[in-house]
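A.,

Following up on our hallway conversation. Structure tokens first:
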């Protein structure tokens, strides 16, 4: 038998995280701990209300497979027992961690990939006034960030971006609208972004309305986030997006994320690796994908007032392995 623990944690943030859907002051995660043959392993997920998830619903999902999990459920079997989402991610991550620890390997070694000593990660500039966002961008760049992810809603687009570009003239900028824009005026906004040297736009339209992107001529790549969870979504993305954002909490864990990355690359999509607001445990579970992506957005733990121990080693804009 395998010992299993499932519990919730709350991690305060040092600064409010503000996107188009609102602000949050803490990270709420669900943790799965496994112990088998004297070896302990852990997995973490961040339930996301946008996808109908809560801490309680995720714990309840995991409890439905507790007998199988205690009876040494495999990763392969897990894929058929739980749907894609945060609950499956926590379990899948724990099972991967257990597999690696049993073999005395790092997770990357268990997946048979090599990782660089340093991963460049985006640093997020959250929504504020143009002056606030410009000051944040300048401060991040002064500390060493080179890739900035700019969160936007449907207001003050040009004012914010012009101020940020002036404050961070050398930074690589990507923009994330989190589904807040509309098809009307999108062409003009895309041209503005291109004129300011923005290199990618993430999920400008609601996932249910992104058919407006079909045959939409645009001067910079558009990345699917909310519109892409698993391999099943890829067919509907052709002709609308050039890139996908892979997050373990969407795919339901590394097992599906690896398959999604392989199929998406084979179909011509560029890749981004993203995260929720989380601890280092969740980032560690996603690292085997880091060498496959054009952009890594792994700054979730850097928003925490205190990270889990042992924490990954972050400096501004970099993750050191």
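Then the amino acids I'd put at each of the 321 positions:
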């Amino acid at each position: 038998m395998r010992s299993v623990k499932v519990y919730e944690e709350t991690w305060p943030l040092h600064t409010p995280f503000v996107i188009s859907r609102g602000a949050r002051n803490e990270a709420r995660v669900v943790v799965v701990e496994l112990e088998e043959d004297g070896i302990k392993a852990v997995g973490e997920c961040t339930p996301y209300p946008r996808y109908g998830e809560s801490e309680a619903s995720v714990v309840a999902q995991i409890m439905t497979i507790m007998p199988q999990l205690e009876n040494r459920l495999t990763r392969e079997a897990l894929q058929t027992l739980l749907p894609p989402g945060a609950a499956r991610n926590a379990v899948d991550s724990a099972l991967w961690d257990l597999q690696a620890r049993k073999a005395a390997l790092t997770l990357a070694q268990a997946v048979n990939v090599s990782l660089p000593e340093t991963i460049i990660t985006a640093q997020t500039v959250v929504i504020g006034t143009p002056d606030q966002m410009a000051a944040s961008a300048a401060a991040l760049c002064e500390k060493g960030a080179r890739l900035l992810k700019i969160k936007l809603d449907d207001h003050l687009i040009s004012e914010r971006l012009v101020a940020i570009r002036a404050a961070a003239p050398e930074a690589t900028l990507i923009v994330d609208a989190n589904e807040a824009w509309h098809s009307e005026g999108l062409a003009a906004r895309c041209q503005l972004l291109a004129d300011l040297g923005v290199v990618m736009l993430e999920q400008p339209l609601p996932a249910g309305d992104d058919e407006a992107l079909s045959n939409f001529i645009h001067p910079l790549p558009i990345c699917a986030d909310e519109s892409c969870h698993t391999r099943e979504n890829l067919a509907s993305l052709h002709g609308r997006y050039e890139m996908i954002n892979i997050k373990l909490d969407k795919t339901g864990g590394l097992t599906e994320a690896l398959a999604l990355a392989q199929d998406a690359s084979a179909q011509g999509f560029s890749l981004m690796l993203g995260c929720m607001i989380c601890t280092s445990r969740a980032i560690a579970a996603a690292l085997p994908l880091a060498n496959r992506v054009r952009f890594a957005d792994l700054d979730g733990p850097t928003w925490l007032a205190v990270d889990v121990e042992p924490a990954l080693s972050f400096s501004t804009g970099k993750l050191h392995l």
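The chain has a mean pLDDT of 97. Curious whether your intuition agrees with the design.

B.
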